[in-house]
Amino acid sequence: MNKTRRFLIYTIIFVFFTILIQSVSMAQPPDPGCNPDDPTCPIDGGVTLLIAAGIGIGARKLKSKNNTEKL
Questions:
Q1: What is the 8-class DSSP label of residue 33?
Q2: pTM for the full predicted model
Q3: Does the chain have fewer CB atoms within 10 Å around its N or its C terminus?
Q4: With contact defined as beta carbons under 8 Å apart, do 41 and 34 qualify?
Q5: Which long-range contacts (C-beta less than 8 Å, at least 24 apart) are formed by 36-44?
Q6: How many helices (H) and strands (E) are present in the chain, helices listed first?
Q7: Residues 6+ apart with CB under 8 A from 10
Q8: Domain map of the chain by residue range?
């Protein structure tokens, strides 16, 4: 079996088990204890981290763009 075919088979097996593990691990119902339509429902910490990461990446790209324009 060539390397490309072996890599494809291993990738398919990995994706299959990853999806299987996700579906088994979700044992609790997805109820956070607050109504999603309620405007006072808090934003989870993960969303805040993603926003902060996006701001950081944007600032880094803007800084590198300004540095290349000055050269």
A1: S
A2: 0.38
A3: C
A4: yes
A5: none
A6: 2, 0
A7: none
A8: 3-26+43-70
